[in-house]
Amino acid sequence: MFPVPIFDWNVKQLFLYLSAEYATKSNALNQVVLWDKIVLRGEKTKLSLKDVKSKYFFFDDGNGLRANKNITLTLSWNVVPNAGILPLVTGSGHKSLPFPESYETTKSY
Fold first, then answer.
1. 2-20 per-position pLDDT tens digit
2. Total Cβ atoms within 10 A of residue 65
3. Rounded to 5 degrees, what are φ and ψ at 48?
4. What does the alpha-carbon distance between residue 40 and residue 80 come to, in Å, rounded to a whole number?
């Protein structure tokens, strides 16, 4: 069976985003968006994401993200239609992994 193309007559663009979920002592569920990308109709849909850095500054309530041994990454996307509702679709797979003890910091301002 061939995959169905996601871009049809009513798809203007895709909004892709990668989020991390994790638990801390003070919060059962923490979520942070690590990366996002807009893919317009007609653009290359095969993404090369090697060595991608986080796009956003994020603040970690209680430092529960750094050195956490159970972070779940989820890829989600919105199909932005030319007309109609804006559905939210979450990827069917999840990846859990430990985060590093320390982070690299760069100044982008």
1. 455 777 888 888 888 888 8
2. 19
3. -110, 110
4. 9
